[in-house]
Amino acid sequence: MGDPAIRFHDLGHAYKPGHWIFQNYSAAVERSSIFALLGPNGAGKTTLLKILLGALKATAGTIEVSGRTAFVPQLFQVTFDYSVLDMVLMGRARNVGVFSQPSARDEEAAMASLDRFGMAHYARDPFHELSGGERQLVIFARALVSEAEILILDEPTSALDLKNQLVVLDWITRLSHEDGLTVLFTTHHPHHALAVADTALLMLGGSRFDQGPARDVLSEENLHALYGVNIKHLSFEHQGEQHETLVPVLPYGTRARNEAANERSRAE
Amino acid sequence: MTTATADRGIAVPSALRKQGWTVPILVGLALLSAIFASLCVGAYPMSFWHSAKLVLHLVWPFSTYNPDLKELTVVKIIRPPRVLLATLAGMGLGMSGTALQGMFRNPLVSPDIVGVTSGAAFGAALAISLDWSPAVIMALGCCTGMMAMACTFSLAKMARGSNDGVVVILSGVFIGAFFLALLGLVEFWGNPFRISHWIIGSFVNADWTKVWTIAIPTLIGGCVLMTLRWRLNLLSLGDLDAQSLGINVGLLRWTIIAVVSVIVASQVAVSGVIALVGLVVPHCARMLVGPDHRRLLPTAALIGALFVLALDDLNRSSVYAALPVGALSAMVGTPVVCLLLWKSRGRGWTRNS
After folding, report:
1. Contact B6/A78, CB-based, under 8 Å?
2. Per-residue model confidence as pLDDT tens digits over A183-213
3. How far is A6 from chain B (nearest CA, A)?
């Protein structure tokens, strides 16, 4: 596989001295692989992303990111209503000289990238009028046009409806397999990580973490340790293909259990 | 691979590429006509058409017209510096307001609000009260203007660790109040009438020294902003995003802060405080050409010039010639801001989600 795209060693960060958000984290993200980052709120997922993007300096440890990165924020909001093409064009920032404006070639590249995601006909529309899923695809197009090798996504599915969640997961897989991009994403959905990620890192807080192949790391025991709730691993067959998923067990009972209890009390 | 998609090349609709350049060109032509018309109006008892004939005589090299020397002096010596001063001041304010709004991702930011105007006014008033030369007035105004803006920005950063829009405005209000207080002290100890007369903003007593004082910073600074105008789009996305796209956010922001401070300080040093132009003009321009700074910044420069020039013409041609432009701009600007807010409710930057 050669050199990993991202490698960090003994990484730790504390916003206040002594108050470590996480500590002694070590992991490597192979090229063209998909890496999922899981952890409860406050575990430091966003902090780790900021460190990876170079926006924050880690308090301890070393980090190597080899390759251009592109960032896809969680919920994309713009103050000014730029057109979709203007948004994608911004991905060319590294290719446009500091004191110059993007050329016709840059605009063509932006259009081609939009077309790749089936969004070319939206080029003139205001970005903020698109749905959440469409915006996410525009930001993907922007990442692609920047000729990035590493894509870093912050909860890419969190604000989307069910269908668009699947569309985005699909694109994550395609960008990794077809374009050879390395993808690192954070998520609150373990089943999304299980479905697309090759490797996963569970941020258990402090200096505790679990890292390895997604299928091994996303075990029922580990996820219970991570979230404090029971999560069942299920395998099933659909159209001749084997699938697996993770389903949380509701702690206060499901409708079926409550109905059964009602039935019992009525019988008594 | 990405390069392959880039090479395949999907043609950008030509209408999209040319989109919006008609409006800036029309505004530019309007500005040229306004400059011409401004040379033809004024307090001197001379009809518009007679003045126009004189102006044409001056620009047309083969003219055989033999004008009255007194009238020629008005059109050749008295009016041009004032017209140029108003044009340059408006241009600078339009560009500065647009750059600041883009940079702070906040359409309510303007040079007056982030403290640079009060800072520059304090420095210039100090120099005026000490009877220093125009160059020193300008230099001191620049320094204190930049200092005020740097204070505002640092305070906002300290308070929130980011350039959050509301925090920037609040910091600007505090810093602005502080420099206004200093200005009050200078006024109290110095020559209050002279300073307050100058503070309120006016192009009376325009001369060529003043024109050069404002022209050099405004044109050089304007060129820098123009070359960086696409980067303003990137800066308006937010720090983390802009940085991930490969922008040196800190350096770019400080460059723009420095350039805007110099432009605004030079304007304040020669013509006092002209309120609300930096706030209103970017909005008008945005309504005409959209938010893309590649078209917005030039359009805002032209509209700013047109706006201030028109206000000054109103001032010069009115019976109450003493009505200063600064007061006039605030009186015209406030209803315009109200109208803009009312018209843009539910879309653009007033959206919450």
Report:
1. no
2. 999 999 999 999 999 999 999 888 888 889 9
3. 15
